[in-house]
Amino acid sequence: MNAKCPKCGTLTDIDAYHTHPNGKREGVYRCFSRGCWNTFMRPVNEDSRRDAGTETFSHKPKTVPTIKTDC
Question: Region Disordered: which residues (predicted)?
């Protein structure tokens, strides 16, 4: 998901995600265009986030294999 930087107008990728206490998520964007260094947030559509290959805790396997060593 890309968003335009409100300061310089450059398309920027999501750098991180922020979850509010009410459960809503926002994407944190950082613009690295020619020294702009602007940081801004935009709401994230949950369906597009899952389609992008992001793995949530509910989709992870419930069992974790045990690694045994001889130490």
Answer: 49-71
